[in-house]
Amino acid sequence: MLSVVNENGTTQSGSLMDDIVREGARRMLAAALEAEVNQYIAELAGERDEAGRRLVVRNGHHRERTVATAAGPIAVKAPRVNDKRVDGERGERKRFSSKILTPWCRKSPKISEVLPLLYLHGLSSGDFVPAMEQFLGSAAGLSPATVTRLTKQWSDDHAAFQDRDLSGSDYVYVWADGVHPKVRHGQARSCVLVLMGVRTDGSKELVALAEGLRESTESWADLLRDCRRRGMRDPELVVGDGAMGLWRALAELFPQARHQRCWVHKTRNVVNALPKSAQPGAKKALQEIYNAEDRDHAEKAVKDFERAYGAKWPKAVKKITDDADELVAFYDLPAEHWVHLRTTNPIESTFSTVKLRTKVTRGAGSPAAALAMVFKLAESAQARWRAITAPHLVALVSNGARFERGVLVERKQEAAA
């Protein structure tokens, strides 16, 4: 029910607009809960006792509770179900459990999603109650103890993620990068090592996330070794920055995977080795390589770059010629996938929005806790990741199909015949 509106357009609980939004959300939630119960009872209408009476019937409503949602606090009175059926194996009464509003729910999943972001911005557990109360109009379902339990759950979730079975996941493409969120880890140069993959259906998925040294072969080897232990198979292509210790570790643990150097990192490295006057022209020449029509044209553009800049700036040119094969590897794959495979942008774009605080105060705790919070942010972002272009072609790549100039020319089965 809406509050009385004051002369200045406010109400006792805030603004009239917020009250209208909350009331609309309350009514929609109530209607959804009623519909869910009605469907449950209708589906079991045939379940009757020996006297012909229904075993599943309505039984009023539960006690009202307040749930914190993105629309603000909402008072809910969930309908109650009297289910008299008995589980034959366990001998226990069956119970109705709402999929919309679980029995102990006091906050929506969206609220839980925003908590790690606020925590990483510097809010301690004691700051959440006043901060969320100001934003949502109520602190229902939140308390310092609740936040403390959540941070423990984040660590448990990350540990389970890092120990899950990978044998059923075929990652055809993998991006690898070491990102430096502004969180103090155990070592001064430590960062978060990230693996993100593309499954055979074209969807993107976070593969692994662990603390380590970006330039250390051993750090990457530890991560890759763990992935191999859990059943991960060789991807078709791994995309990463050439400065990392990844490549030697990859050659040892996933020797069948082809290597693709990130063009964003490579362009930056080359340009930094040139005087400012030469940089605009060099950038355009590099674009001619990674935006070429096909591999043949890209290799020609590499030679053109060498002729144009090799005499004056051999060190800059060497950064391209020494890695030429690994800079144009993506041209042997479907043309629709090229835009995704030239760079590690899928990782960088995700973590560029993770604005972590610069100092660890009483809120952040240990490096492990900070890593767990980074994991929760990445996990939340994953729900919004879109599949790569032409996802149906990923399975063909996984099955050994051959592409020339970005076009399918031979399937593995055809080659065998």
What report would you give on this structure?
Required for the transposition of the insertion element. Keywords: DNA recombination, DNA-binding, Transposable element, Transposition. InterPro entries: Transposase_mutator (IPR001207). By secondary structure, this protein is α+β, with helices and mostly antiparallel strands. The chain has 16 helices and 13 strands. The strands form five sheets. The chain has a five-stranded mixed beta sheet with strand order 9-8-7-10-11, sandwiched between helices. Helix 4 (144-162) packs across helix 14 (367-382). The longest helix is centred in the first third of the chain and has 28 residues, at 16-43. It is elongated and about 95 Å long. Mean pLDDT is 81; it is low at 134-141 and 355-364.
Secondary structure blueprint with pairings:
Blueprint: E1 10-11, E2 14-15, H1 16-43, E3 56-61, E4 65-69, E5 72-76, E6 79-83, H2 109-120, H3 128-136, H4 144-162, E7 173-179, E8 190-198, E9 204-213, H5 217-229, E10 237-240, H6 246-253, E11 258-261, H7 263-272, H8 279-290, H9 295-309, H10 314-321, H11 324-327, H12 338-341, H13 345-351, H14 367-382, H15 392-398, E12 402-404, E13 407-410, H16 412-416
Parallel strand pairs: 7-10, 10-11
Antiparallel strand pairs: 1-2, 3-6, 4-5, 7-8, 8-9, 12-13
Helix pairs in contact: 2-14, 4-14, 5-6, 7-8, 7-10, 8-9, 9-10
